[in-house]
Amino acid sequence: MLAPKKQKYRKIFRGKNRGVASRGANLSFGEYGLKAVDRGLVTSAQIEAARKAIAHFTKREGKVWVRIFPDHPITAKGEGRMGAGKGEVKGFVAVVPPGKFLFELAGVTEDIARLALQRAAVKLPMKTRFFAREGA
What we know:
Low-confidence stretches: none
Strand order of the largest sheet: 3-6-1-7
Structural class: alpha+beta
Order of helices and strands: EEHEEEEHE
Largest sheet: 4 strands, antiparallel
Distance between the termini: 32 Å
Number of helices: 2
CATH architecture of the domain at 32-77 and 87-132: Alpha-Beta Complex
Strand content: 25-35%
Oligomer: single chain
Shape: elongated
CATH topology of the domain at 32-77 and 87-132: Aldehyde Oxidoreductase, domain 3
């Protein structure tokens, strides 16, 4: 599973996920991409499941870029009264605004890329769209 090697703070506030993506909103590496339509949190397990689905369907041909990284710790709070404190870190998530590319793919045909990224989209907790670079 993906997780940061080092952090400044172990537990952080939840924060807001407002606005649309300006960074990561264009195809930078591959010919085809999977773009988020909704906003949400993607766990490291979901990222890994989607990456494996792409690798399995493409028979490991071509190259896959994962454009998100789970660097936001999520805590699990047990039952208890107010003042019991914050729970332990349960795992890490990537905060995804709408318009951000999640995965990019190159070195395969458009049909294979479309089907592979559709299989990856099933593993993710948000609506996504398939994009192809002009002239691809």
